[in-house]
């Protein structure tokens, strides 16, 4: 790896592509290095993971509406849409529908560093374009390795949320870079596509503040769609605002750290394999990643508190990121509101810890049900919980050594008789360093659990054979990655749209 330093152009300084981040990302996309076996294996795991969580979300309104929009854009050859085996949509619209399905339950992979990321959001747009353009499974894997590398490296080097920008900006860049690899584009073309994608996806972080809406699921799908459209324009010879990061009116100068800021983005050296996916991790629970370890800890603590009505106060000491994103440091009163949206509840550590402590489990539907959120004993416990920032845990969150990085904290539970219970956790059980790390068998178990109500055993096996042999899957057979779905409750799209 090497460190690429990017900064705003000085007055009168001419742009130089070699000193531009977008150009370096384009060169990375064009570097057709071999895939490590462990990288291939993990990419396959994430394809399996995405498919399970998408299938489980097919009856939810945002997914139904996105699929309805995609259905209005048939294309030949087109790309598959989850839950619609005969439909082939324009690739940008298939990416839109599938991206919403994958993201709706907040149940797939994550990477946390200077910025937050869900790198598996790259899979729907890259898979859609691959299917439409007749690329093979191996082409998909190579493109995904690029996209994961770009997404993770940008998340390590550039914080967007610090300046109120949503994290989908990095996703748009990684999608465009992945498309450069998928389609074997010259760096000049990928460079323009990356810049257009970044320019059109610098949105505000209000999407994850206050009353969090269904746009949280649509946001990465939007970035994927914009990435596809940007690269399509670039392939037709269109250019982009340039340099998008370093220009005096660019992202760094006007939206991030300002004219004097400098960012350091780690990148693979030429010829070095793209291994960034190995630093990412999936979710065992359908909740924001910062809450994963706390669900595990709450489950363990449950047996130590036989009378939970005796809990007087719960104080969670954790990192600045956890405190400010899903804790009381967010300043969002909605995080204590029983009438809050599902999206808001899955960004409330106080709610999640309360329910996990009471139930000893977590479920992607039951744990968010309105009747669950309105239980009087839950509300009482929920509102007794607060988070505080702990510099020790903030430092561990940002540790540059993945073997030391932690996303947990300490908890103090005070009972009515004055008794206190202390405990702590470093990482979620499903984390690579956790008590029960996810391996291929657990990814498949998660897929089967989510898919079984809707996909027959035979169709599950067909999908798993295709996914596990993705490197050998020829062009024309990518549709096998979309299992036939039955028994999904009929939820019509909301009428009244324009399109």
From TrEMBL:
Domain MmgE/PrpD N-terminal: residue ranges: 21-262
MF annotations from Gene Ontology: 2-methylcitrate dehydratase activity
MmgE/PrpD C-terminal domain location: 285-471
Family: Belongs to the PrpD family.
Alphabetic keyword roster: Lyase
Designated name of the protein: 2-methylcitrate dehydratase
Leading EC class: lyase
Entry EC no(s): 4.2.1.79
Top-level taxon of the source organism: Bacteria
Presence of the UniProt keyword Lyase in the record: yes
InterPro entries: MmgE/PrpD_sf, MmgE/PrpD_sf_1, MmgE/PrpD_sf_2, MmgE_PrpD, MmgE_PrpD_C, MmgE_PrpD_N
Organism, scientific name: Acidothermus cellulolyticus (strain ATCC 43068 / DSM 8971 / 11B)
């Amino acid at each position: 790896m090497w460190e690429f330093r990017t900064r705003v152009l000085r007055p009168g300084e001419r742009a130089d592509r070699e000193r531009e981040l977008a150009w370096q990302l384009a060169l990375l996309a064009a570097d057709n290095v071999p895939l490590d076996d462990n990288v291939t294996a993990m990419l396959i795991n994430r394809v399996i993971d995405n498919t399970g969580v998408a299938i489980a979300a097919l009856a939810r309104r945002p997914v139904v509406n996105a699929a309805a929009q995609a259905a209005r854009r048939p294309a030949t050859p087109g790309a598959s849409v989850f839950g619609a085996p005969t439909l082939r949509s324009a690739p940008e619209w298939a990416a839109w529908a599938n991206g919403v399905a994958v993201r709706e339950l907040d149940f797939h992979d994550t990477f946390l560093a200077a910025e937050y990321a869900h790198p598996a959001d790259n899979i729907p747009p890259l898979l859609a374009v691959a299917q439409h353009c007749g690329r093979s499974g191996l082409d998909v894997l190579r493109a995904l390795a690029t996209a994961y590398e770009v997404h993770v490296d940008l998340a390590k080097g550039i914080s967007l949320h610090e300046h109120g920008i949503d994290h989908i900006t990095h996703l748009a860049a990684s999608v465009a870079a992945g498309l450069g690899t998928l389609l074997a584009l010259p760096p000049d073309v990928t460079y323009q596509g990356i810049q257009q994608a970044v320019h059109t996806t610098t949105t505000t972080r209000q999407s994850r503040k206050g009353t969090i809406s269904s746009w949280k699921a649509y946001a990465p799908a939007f970035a994927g769609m914009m990435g596809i459209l940007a690269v399509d324009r670039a392939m037709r010879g269109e250019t982009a605002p340039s340099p998008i990061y370093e220009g005096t009116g660019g992202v760094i100068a006007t939206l991030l750290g300002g004219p004097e800021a400098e960012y350091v983005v780690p990148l693979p050296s030429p010829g070095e394999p793209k291994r960034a996916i190995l630093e990412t991790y999936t979710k065992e629970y359908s909740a924001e990643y910062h809450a994963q370890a706390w669900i595990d800890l709450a489950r363990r603590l449950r047996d130590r508190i036989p009378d939970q009505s005796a809990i007087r106060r719960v104080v969670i000491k954790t990192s600045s990121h956890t405190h400010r994103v899903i804790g009381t440091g967010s300043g969002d009163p909605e995080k204590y509101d029983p009438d809050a949206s599902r999206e808001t509840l899955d960004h409330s550590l106080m709610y999640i810890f309360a329910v996990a402590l009471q139930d000893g489990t977590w479920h992607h539907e039951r744990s968010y049900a309105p009747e669950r959120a309105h239980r009087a004993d839950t509300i009482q416990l929920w509102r007794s919980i607060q988070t505080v920032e702990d510099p020790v845990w903030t430092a561990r969150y940002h540790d540059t050594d993945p073997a030391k990085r932690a996303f947990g904290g300490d908890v103090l539970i005070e009972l009515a008789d004055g008794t206190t219970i202390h405990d702590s956790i470093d990482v979620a059980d499903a984390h690579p360093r956790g008590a029960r790390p996810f391996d291929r068998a657990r990814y498949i178990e998660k897929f089967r659990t989510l898919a079984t109500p809707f996909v027959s055993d035979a169709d599950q096996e067909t999908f798993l054979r295709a996914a596990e042999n993705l490197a050998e899957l020829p062009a024309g057979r990518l549709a096998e990655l979309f299992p036939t779905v039955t028994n999904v409750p009929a939820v019509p799209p909301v009428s009244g749209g324009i399109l």
